[in-house]
Amino acid sequence: ELAIHNIPYKIVDKDEELTRNDDRFIHGDAADKATLIKAGIDKAKSILITSHDDSLNLYLILYCRKFKPELQIISRSIHPRNVTKLHKAGADLVMLFASMGSNTIINYLNPDEELMAVEGLSAFCVPVPEQLIGISLAKSQIREKNKCSVVALIQGDVQNLNPDPFEPLIEQDEILMIGTNEAEANFREYYSLQEDTLEIEE
Fold first, then answer.
1. By the 8 A CB rule, do 49 and 60 touch?
2. CA separation, residue 12 to residues 4, 43, 61 (Å)
3. pTM for this structure?
């Protein structure tokens, strides 16, 4: 999917059989600093942590957040009880597969309802606030100030899933974000946005 959307990526895996003869696959331990540097963490905008061990996921979130504070960190969670811990450790998004499966079913049965994307979070779309016009995503501090994560920029009929973080936002853009209901409310209050009803087409 990343390749289809022309998003460059690296995959780190300890299992040599799962790594291919391709420079996008790195054989090594993600808990090893040298391996992460080889994978290009210093240049990455986002990191997906998908191990089967929540303790390792927690460690990697803490390590990656400390190594590069501006990273968008998306983590898998195996057990429901660990979702809050992973968020507190610094994950922007936590995906609990059981909840994602049930949410997908609910969304399918209720297509007019707001999309529930991951555990405890929902997707919402807002116009670029007046205060952010001419400001880049990198300087907007949306995640730090409002606990929301930018998923894409909607520019006309185009959804830009890999927006340039240093490109200034323009008035005609809309921002597709993921956050809790509280985070969305805080964002709207912070930027004095009305609770508009927006339709997001898949």
1. yes
2. 19, 15, 15
3. 0.56
Q: Which of 53, 57, 90, 50 is nearest to 73 (CA)?
A: 90
Helix, strand and coil content of the chain, in percent to the nearest 5, comes to: 35, 25, 40
User: Which tens digits make up the pLDDT trace of 119-157?
Assistant: 566 778 889 999 999 999 889 988 888 888 888 888 887
Extract the tokens encoding 54.
């929540």
The string of DSSP letters for 18-33 reads GS-SSTTEEES-TTSH
Q: What angle do CA 172, 110, 97 make, to 5 degrees?
A: 90
* Model pLDDT for residues 29-52, shown as the tens digit of each residue: 888 889 999 999 988 989 999 988
